[in-house]
């Protein structure tokens, strides 16, 4: 009977440690929407698609590996989604379903509009899928969109990379943090103990002696 009155889980949960858990898709976003800039991967956070995929795949965030770019596919794996208001992709779901129905949720940081975000979905040898969060349109983009091409199509904003991880990884991050904290305490205690032993060590008796001849 109590289950009838149980409230559904919130669409996003702030797990701490800079992690936001999406309960609808069972994925974890970095709270920092431009982490590449924060860690100095590039001056403004912009990367080509090959550089973005390489950086995200090698990312070690608080001891957690296995990060990726969000997919352009639907939740059931079909697609990729192309066009306006594509709620099937992970970024489309986040902005068009979560933020549209819960406008008071403010958990993200370092965001800017207009901007474009890469997805992990490759379109061809020269193009990959991206989503424009200002126009909410998802489509293909040159993997190196910063080169001059003809006809030249101006970008509507910076091209950024937003790492995401499958599942709820906060528990592992918390465990890693506690382990580091415990190791620090052990190291401090050992240093303190050795320093105490050094100060309290009793004076050593001299083993030298004087021989008196008869």
How many helices? The count is 4
The structural domain count equals 1
* Strand residue content: 15-25%
Q: What fraction, in percent, of the residue positions are helical?
A: 25-40%
User: Which structural class fits the helix and strand makeup?
Assistant: alpha+beta
Mean pLDDT: 82
Description:
With 214 residues, the chain is α+β, with helices and mostly antiparallel strands. The chain has one domain. It is built from 4 helices and 9 strands, in the order E-E-E-H-H-E-H-E-E-E-E-E-H. It has helices spanning 35-38, 49-57, 90-101, 170-200, and strands at residues 12-16, 19-22, 27-30, 83-84, 116-122, 127-132, 137-142, 159-160, 164-166. The strands form 2 sheets. Strands 4-7-6-5-8 form a 5-stranded mixed sheet. The chain has a 4-stranded antiparallel sheet with strand order 1-2-3-9, with no helix packed on it. The protein is globular and about 70 Å long. Mean pLDDT is 82; it is low at 205-214.
Short précis:
By secondary structure, the chain is an alpha+beta fold. The chain contains four helices and nine strands, in the order βββααβαβββββα.
């Amino acid at each position: 009977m109590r289950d009838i009155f149980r409230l559904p889980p919130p669409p996003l949960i702030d797990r701490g440690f800079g992690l936001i858990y999406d309960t609808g898709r069972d994925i974890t976003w970095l709270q920092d929407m431009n982490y590449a800039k924060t860690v100095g991967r590039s001056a403004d956070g912009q990367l080509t698609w090959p550089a973005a995929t390489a950086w995200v795949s090698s990312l070690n965030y608080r001891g957690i590996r296995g990060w990726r770019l969000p997919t352009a596919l639907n939740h059931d794996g079909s697609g990729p989604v192309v066009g306006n208001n594509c709620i099937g992709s992970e970024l489309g779901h986040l902005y068009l379903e979560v933020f549209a129905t819960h406008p008071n949720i403010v958990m993200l940081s370092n965001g800017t509009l207009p901007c474009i975000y890469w997805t992990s979905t490759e379109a061809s040898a020269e193009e990959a899928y991206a989503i424009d969060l200002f126009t909410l349109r998802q489509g293909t983009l040159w993997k190196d969109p910063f080169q001059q091409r003809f006809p030249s199509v101006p970008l509507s904003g910076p091209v950024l990379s937003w790492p995401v991880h499958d599942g709820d990884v906060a528990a592992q991050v918390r465990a890693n943090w506690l382990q580091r904290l415990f190791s620090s305490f052990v190291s401090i205690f050992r240093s303190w103990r050795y320093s105490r032993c050094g100060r309290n060590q009793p004076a050593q008796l001299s083993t030298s002696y004087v021989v008196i001849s008869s």
